[in-house]
TrEMBL record:
The lineage of its organism: Bacteria, Bacillati, Actinomycetota, Actinomycetes, Streptosporangiales. Gene3D superfamilies: Leucine-rich Repeat Variant. It comes from Spongiactinospora gelatinilytica. InterPro entries: ARM-like (IPR011989), ARM-type_fold (IPR016024). This is PBS lyase.
Length: 691
């Protein structure tokens, strides 16, 4: 797909770009962007590249205008000496889905075919004088599915002649990526195994080792690259250093420019800035071999070299977030980085710990020590610069609990309570303080006097201010221990405060001590908002044992949509045997369609509470467990309640406990409750097997 046209933009203006669209409207500016990609001014090139990624290839989407740019981009790639060629080739690699070209359809497949039709060009550009062009080309070749055998052979043939480390690394990664798809596995594995032994550059050795670890051997087993063999190489990389990213000397108001500046800033003051990527890729390559990953990271976190310790923190976070294991020693070492005082280490270590819940306990001493010595307030982004604080203030926004304090409170450590009390008493009370306080349950009762006062002085009528709801959550977690707050809640209701679901939940959790609020709760029970009326129904039952009033709310919602029915089921589960009149309807709901299985699961939970019948529930629970991993914590809890009646589920429970990957881990997203939720699932599975 090449031509001999002298002008790479010949015919560009003949295309009716305005009839095509990209993410933000008509693609009228595409000719200007394409010309900008080859402009002598690097700032103009960067702005054009940013606009291509932002509109023409928005978040990886391919449009007809994306396809129409490919011939011109290919022409740009063929012009020796033209500025911006490496970026153009990498843009084409992204168009062609080089990272994952399997199973492409529609425009994505068309883009891949248009780019890879120029395979002779890409093969030739592996010999280009510009090493950045060679590296970009090597990264594109995995997109060439139809030419895969030739592409692998071409990459391997280039290895002996290539002298530039960055290009060598890209060739190795691309050849290994194609081998992982099943292409020329034996040839790639054999070549890399010989290379890792013969190579004298430790950074290249580590690159090759990481790819070998992630490759299946010819007998289906992973090649033997022991952690003990790579640790000396890592130490040598940090000792000898690696190239960094020199400042570009210009600035643009673009995302591409911001990412470039972040790389430049991250490299400042470092001897081996490229080592971080090597450690990350090597650790990730060991995959589910958690013991090997721990054997790699724990020595790195003990290293006297601060860069080495810093570079081990994010792989440690990725390991803990995605995989199960015994992380006590690792987390304690992460905590030691908080004590060290280095700003980069401190921020990264706190980032590892902030969402671990009880798993952060081995680092609690270090966190408490650092917080005691820290300032109480920091302004964002100071916390990202290593300034630990109890509270973070944001521009034009309500403050939040600092990540280190959130980590300490997540572990339910008593030393966090005085700090939370101080934050709770601030005029600018953190928007998210209810969650950390709620972690302590009734142990947070000493904070009740401050909580009572704050209920009255927080602003009302602010639709985006949910701080009072957060305090209601904390009170609900305290349960009967929060009985002293009932007069304050009554004052709010008497003054016209809306009976919100969180407020009703707090009253219900407090229980009979909230009896004086019943008139307001009865009014809320007929509210048009189903979340409010359902919360009121539960409160009626918990406070007064009013089964008739609560059941009437559930009855009203059972005829509504899926969300209304879900609320009704929750009320019936609260009522238990008092809701026996709904037994037949709950049995029918067990069979109601729901692609995520939450509704039949809720019906099963309610039916168990109402009737104590196990047999009708078992198929529903098994289907939910297999179809939606996110239901597993609730399903395991119910199996644990069922006891011996759930014996048929033991195979699934044993299989879950045999998994190394966390049940809710994903390569495409992350939840702040991911680790605590999975740890809870493991505990529930063990409980279900012992009942």
């Amino acid at each position: 797909m090449t031509d001999d046209t002298d002008d790479p933009f010949e015919g560009l203006d003949d295309i009716r770009w305005g009839r095509m669209r990209h993410a933000y409207g008509p693609a009228v500016e595409v000719p200007e962007l394409l010309r900008g990609l080859a402009d002598p001014d690097p700032a103009i090139r960067e702005q054009a590249l940013d606009a291509m990624y932002g509109g023409v290839f928005h978040q990886g989407d391919v449009y007809p205008c994306t396809i129409a740019t490919i011939p011109f981009l290919v022409r740009l790639a063929t012009r020796p000496g033209l500025p911006g060629r490496p970026e153009v080739i990498r843009l084409l690699a992204d168009f062609a889905s080089a990272d994952d070209p399997l199973g492409l359809t529609a425009l994505y497949r068309q883009a891949n075919e248009r780019v890879t039709a120029a395979y002779p060009l890409w093969s030739a550009l592996l010999e280009d004088p510009d090493p950045d062009v060679r590296a970009a080309t090597a990264a594109l070749l995995p997109a060439c599915l139809d030419q895969a055998p030739a592409a692998v052979a071409r990459l391997l043939a280039r290895l002996p002649a290539e002298e530039h480390p960055a290009v060598l690394a890209e060739i190795v990664r691309s050849a290994a990526a194609m081998a992982r798809r099943g292409e020329s596995v034996a040839e790639v594995t054999g070549r890399l195994a010989r290379m890792v032994a013969a190579e004298c550059d430790p950074a290249i050795q580590l690159t090759v080792a990481a790819e070998l670890v992630a490759l299946p051997g010819t007998d289906g087993t992973a090649p033997a690259i022991a952690v003990a063999d790579v640790l000396p190489l890592i130490a040598e990389v940090y000792q000898t250093g690696t190239p960094g990213t020199p400042p570009a000397g210009f600035d643009t108001p673009t995302l591409v420019g911001a990412l470039r500046r972040m790389r430049e800033e991250a490299d400042e003051g470092r001897r081996a800035p490229r080592a971080a990527a090597l450690v990350r890729s090597l650790c990730a390559a060991y995959g589910e071999r958690v013991a090997d990953r721990l054997s790699l990271l724990t020595p790195l976190l003990r290293s006297p070299n601060w860069e080495c310790r810093l570079d081990a923190l994010m792989p440690a976070l990725n390991l803990i977030n995605g995989w199960r294991g015994d992380y006590g020693e690792l987390i304690a070492l992460v905590g030691e980085q908080v004590r060290g005082g280095d700003p980069r280490l401190l921020w990264s270590a706190v980032h590892v710990l902030q969402d671990l819940g009880m798993l952060a306990a081995p680092a609690a001493g270090a966190l408490a020590e650092a917080l005691t010595a820290a300032g109480r307030v920091a302004h964002h982004p100071a916390t990202q610069e290593g300034h630990i604080a109890w509270v973070v203030e944001w521009p034009d926004a309500t403050s939040s609990v600092g990540p280190a304090l959130r980590a300490l409170a997540g572990a339910a450590d008593e030393r966090a309570l005085p700090m939370l009390a101080w934050a709770l008493d601030r005029e600018d009370m953190p928007k998210d303080i209810g969650g950390p306080i709620g972690r302590y349950g009734e142990r947070a009762a000493p904070l009740l006097p401050i909580l009572r006062r704050r209920l009255h002085d927080l602003p009302t009528g602010e639709p985006r201010d949910h701080r009072r709801d957060g305090l209601m959550y904390a009170l609900a977690q305290m349960g009967p221990a929060a009985a002293g707050v009932v007069p304050d809640l009554l004052v709010l209701l008497e003054s016209g405060e809306a009976a919100t679901a969180p407020l009703l939940g707090a009253l219900g959790a407090i229980g009979p001590a909230s009896r004086e609020s019943l008139p307001y709760i009865r009014v809320a029970a007929v509210h048009s908002d189903r979340s409010v009326s359902s919360a009121a129904a539960k409160a009626l039952w918990r406070i007064d044992g009013d089964a008739e009033g609560a059941y009437a709310v559930a009855e009203r919602h059972l005829g509504g949509d899926r969300y209304a029915v879900t609320g009704a089921i929750g009320v019936l589960a609260e009522l238990g045997p008092a809701a026996s009149a709904a037994t037949d309807r709950l049995r029918r709901l067990l069979r109601r369609g729901d692609e995520h299985h939450w509704l039949p699961l809720g019906a099963a939970q309610a039916l168990w509470q109402v009737t104590g019948e196990a047999d009708p529930l078992l198929p529903v629970l098994e289907r939910a467990w297999l179809a939606n991993a996110h239901t597993r914590r609730d399903v395991a809890a119910l199996w644990a309640d069922l006891g011996p009646a759930a014996k048929s589920a033991h195979g699934l429970l044993h299989a879950e406990l045999g998994r190394v990957r966390r049940h809710n881990a994903s390569d495409h997203g992350y939840s702040s409750s991911q680790v605590p939720d999975d740890e809870a699932l493991v505990r529930l599975c063990r409980a279900a097997l012992t009942t």
